[in-house]
């Protein structure tokens, strides 16, 4: 895309920045990421966005504009830095050639600089959450139709098959693929533990219980530990800190916990683990699209919504979670098609 082309055309900090993003990353996501890095360096979010716009989204030029003003140069930029940013020891015009230093944590404690930067990070995360929550609740299962050119442009992608366990396959072209990772924590893990915890007899019964449950009755949340958001590292109060963590202090956890809450917590724990493994592999393999298949997702709207939200949120909108109709049959179809090729090869042999 245009932003990627501009970044790779000049040997500066943009090259290193873009190297960690999948090809074809949306410009808006790239800008959001760059704003967050500038915030980490101590600049105000409004000034960071304005500087990036003035610098045509060139990260190093934006740093130079912002840093020049923080060092008192009146003829370089109208942007001001956040309190304490000028104490970071950055040289005005040399900022683009050097790695900018972070402001000391106590650089302007009396002016509230540290607290303000924490608040800025939290506002940035909140904007990302609002972007996702602003979508209609059913957006995760809206049908996507793409022409042949768009389908070809989707390579490479990850195919995450969730059955009893999880297999993660990188697909580079039709018929060109390799298994890159997997996990033993999958649908079999969820249903097996659900039977132990609640005595449910079928997968459908376990999902029905989860629909009625409240995982926060069992899970320890960030807000339970800190009493609020933990803005310094971008953690919202409603993020799970420890699955089933609240049951540590219960004298009789099985007697005081509803089966519905236990199964809901178990389902989210399993789904969160699958989502994290998928996301990390997508980052490693430089894949912007992740297709989820497997019987674990059959009639499982809770996991589909969670996977869709998690991939969008933690990738800052760079990656896309996609789900297929008849998701539980693709493993069988693949085995059938592979066996047909094997028979053809044997018939064509010497």
What do you see in this structure?
This is pantothenate kinase. Residues 69-78 have a biased composition (Polar residues). Belongs to the type II pantothenate kinase family. Residues 122-135 have a biased composition (Basic residues). It comes from Florenciella parvula. The protein is of the alpha/beta class and 350 residues long. It has two domains: 2-133, no CATH class; 139-218 and 257-337, ATPase, nucleotide binding domain (Nucleotidyltransferase, domain 5, 2-Layer Sandwich), CATH 3.30.420.40. It contains 14 helices and seven strands. It has helices at 2-8, 13-19, 27-40, 45-54, 59-70, 113-133, 148-153, 187-198, 203-212, 222-226, 253-256, 259-285, 301-314, 330-348; strands spanning 157-162, 166-173, 176-183, 220-221, 240-242, 289-293, 320-323. It has a five-stranded mixed β-sheet, with helices on one face. A two-stranded antiparallel ribbon has the order 4-5. A hairpin with a 3-residue loop joins strand 1 (157-162) and strand 2. Helix 3 crosses helix 4 (45-54) and helix 3 (27-40) runs antiparallel to helix 6 (113-133).
